[in-house]
Amino acid sequence: MTVHELGAQIRARKISCVELIQRTLDDIQARDKFCSLITVTGEQALATARERDAELAAGTDRGPFHGIPIALKDLFYTRGVRTTAGSLIYKDFVPDYDATVVEQLHDAGAISIGKTNLHEIAFGITSKNPHFGFVLNPLDPKRLAGGSSGGSAALVAGGFLPMALGTDTGGSIRVPASFCGIAGLKPTYGLVSRHGVLPLGFSLDHVGPLGSCVEDCALALNAMTTGEDYNVPAPADLKGLRVGVPIEPMFGSVMDDVLAAVETAVDQLQKLGADVQRVTTPSFVDMNTTARTVQLAETAAVYVNHQDKKQFGADVWSLLEQGRMIMGHEYVNGQRLRQLFRLEFDKLWTTVDVLVGPTTPMTAPTLDRDTVIIQGREENVRMAATRLVRAVNLLGEPALSIPCGKGSEGMPVGLQLIAAPFAEKTLVKVGKALEQTLGKVGNQ
Predict the structure, then answer these.
(1) Taking Cα atoms as reference points, which of 51, 70, 46 lies closest to residue 62?
(2) How far is Cα 317 from Cα 322, in angstroms, rounded to an integer?
């Protein structure tokens, strides 16, 4: 159920906040076979729920999230609750304060039921965590949930929660949203506070929600920011909207079933009255190369004092080793290129309002696959899954992934919408319009 639907039940006194939290905890204990959570904070959640019920009885309503269960990716500082980052390094780390966004969501009435599993230190897209277990896709447990926010996506896709918090450094909200068939929003860089969030890449990290629908993401963004209402209504049509379809990611190396689903969504945009045009963007290949250089260097800087190979999984250690080999001039030149790419996109935003394409070039691979074949070419799963999303972190633009159909094996296909900086309302408007016509996929 959505935030709105659960909230309506609470306000109609069909269910109390305590009953909703207890039902959620019981449901997770009974059905969550997907290794979604590292730490469950049941007693704390129930205590908060009692407070929320008392507030409603006294006439205090904190808003849409009042009494609503959520979960937090285990990168967010939570006072008195361990924050592991899915890593041995932080396995016993217990912060003495809450991250800013944790405080904001609490103040908005949300109730966290625990900390979600993730790819180790958030450095990967499989969420095959060697220390806390592999996160499984609720739509097909033989497949990846995606990452690094895999546990957050699994809880939402499994129907346990309407929203869970994630982070996105190279696609870590949008990739699991695509693989699990839910909505995932990466806001503009800097719009949402990162204070109290364990870092991965200082200039690439973003905080954002994964939700059962676009509205849930918009409501979460409202709770984590001030001064704007991002939950704009779905429009009757999209007349006047200028939609760009980037030629390279749409017609590059993308699986046929993914391309077909995305083209159906593009056709629907045209039917809604949008002006759809094919556009040329700066090379996603070049932007990905630059973004990867920046991320490798920044992550190596974060973990420069952690030199014990035994503390890390093999894949993460390999990436840290690569980061240590990045030269200073390579990092600086990467940042210079970044500014040039941003200038090119600034020009693009004068001609289009939103860019549309696949979120990932394939649907969720099976857990045993390290590579995928796309248009006859073998690619590493990690590199393929981030190929269409990583560049957006380099730019800092907002991006939304929503399901737009299913592939040939019955798994969801993700549609990525990208907009100019601080144009989250445009993404919400277009996302809601498409949800109404394409339907929601994957939230069982």
Answers:
(1) 51
(2) 9
Task: Tell me the pTM.
Answer: 0.96
Task: Kindly report the backbone phi and psi dihedral angles of residue 209, in degrees, each rounded to the nearest multiple of 5, phi listed first.
Answer: -100, 155
Dist CA 310 CA 156 (whole Å):
33
Distance (Å, whole) CA 100 – CA 413: 33
Beta bridge partners of 211: 163, 183
The pLDDT value given to residue 248: 75
CATH 3.90.1300.10 domain extents, the chain: 3-224, 243-287+327-425
3-class secondary structure per residue, 210-247: EECCHHHHHHHHHHHCCCCCCCCCCCCCCCCCEEEEEH
pLDDT of 249 reads: 65
73 flagged as catalytic: yes
> Which one of the listed residues 16, 87, 127, 148 is annotated catalytic?
148
Burial of 260: CB neighbours in 10 Å, binned 0-12, 13-18, 19+: middle
163: number of Cβ within 10 Å: 30
- What kind of fold does domain 243-287+327-425 have according to CATH? Amidase signature (AS) enzymes (3.90.1300)
Torsion of CA 151, 153, 158, 159, to 10 degrees: 120
Listed residue (312, 334, 316, 353) closest to 393, CA to CA: 334
Bond into 148 cis (ω within 30): yes
The length of the chain, given as a count of residues: 444
> Is 401 considered catalytic here?
no
Active site residue 127: no
At 192, the amino acid letter reads: V
pLDDT tens-digit map of 84-103: 999 999 999 999 999 999 99
Q: How would you class 59 by CB atoms within 10 Å of its CB: exposed for 0-12, middle for 13-18, buried for 19 or more?
A: exposed
Structure tokens that stand for 101 in this block: 């966004």
CA angle, 154 then 94 then 92, to 5°: 80
Query: Which residue ranges of the chain lie beneath pLDDT 50?
Result: 440-444
3-state secondary structure of 30: helix
Structure tokens that stand for 35 in this block: 């290794």
CA distances from 250 to 68, 254, 407, 419, 423 (A): 38, 7, 16, 17, 22
CB 319, CB 348: distance < 8 Å: no
CATH value of 3-224 in 3.30.930.10, 3.90.1300.10, 3.30.1330.20, 3.50.50.60: 3.90.1300.10
CA 289 to centroid of chain Cα atoms: 21
Which one from 36, 73, 127, 128 is the annotated catalytic residue?
73
Considering the candidates 16, 149, 152, 172, report the single residue annotated as catalytic: 172
